[in-house]
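During the second half of the funding period, the structural biology subgroup turned its attention to how the target accommodates small molecules. The most pressing case was flavin mononucleotide, which had performed well in the primary screen but for which no bound structure existed. We therefore specified the complex as follows and requested a full 3D prediction, including the ligand pose.
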Amino acid sequence: MNITIIHGQSHKGTSYYVGRELVKNFDSCQVEEFFLPKVIPDFCLGCYQCLKKDLSHCPHAEKCQPITEAMKNAELLIFTTPVYCMRSSAAMKSLFEHHFIWWMNHRPENSMFFKKAIVIAVGAGGGMKKATADIKVNLENWGISAIWSYSIASGVMLWNEVSKKKLDKIKRDMRDLADKIKRKSVRIKKGQKFHFAYMRFIQKINWCTPEDKAYWQEKGWHEHVRPWRVNL
Ligand SMILES: Cc1cc2nc3c(=O)[nH]c(=O)nc-3n(C[C@H](O)[C@H](O)[C@H](O)COP(=O)(O)O)c2cc1C
């Protein structure tokens, strides 16, 4: 199994630890790992080059490309974030802003429909649900159906202050979560099919850019082809 793990902080703190603990439970897998904002230090400039042309025309394309490719190639995506101001880290949000054309209303990436994803958020005490929601909303709009989220309160600021009891709990939880992920096969949710159908309608009545429409037409999605039937 190919796993891509993306951390919303460049240091190896508690959220990093939880993500790595999960990965340990998958034997013989290929893992690609990225730290934000180290890999993509820039924010989206709102230049719309991705929308008018494609992702390769983003001014930060060179920095984004390795992570973009790793996300496309992975069967399992893992996102970890510390909770900052009751939300995910700005660096994590920046990753999604750099990939907004993958949203279903623009140019969804075919392979996303076949992936599993896990969202992990660690806060000192609050805001974890909203932090996971920040990430989940993007993954859902990319077309992913099999998404799990895990959040925990570290109760501390620094990784080396986390109690032994909490670390043991994380270990147990990650073992259980990995088992669940391995057991479940990907099934496209009805909601995703409906979402796709609605976006297809939007495309057909031209409430979209000509470039988006050309992309859907090239994929055959205006006809009978559906992204979840063939993993291209
Ligand atoms: C800028 C900043 C904002 C934070 N905001 C929150 C917050 O809103 N809620 C919370 O529970 N913890 C907050 N924290 C604490 C961290 O989320 C917490 O210490 C977490 O365990 C850090 O994870 P890490 O070791 O992976 O960086 C904040 C920390 C920083 C640096």
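Two results from this model are relevant to the next phase. The two ends are 17 Å apart (CA to CA). The chain is about 40% helix and 15% strand.
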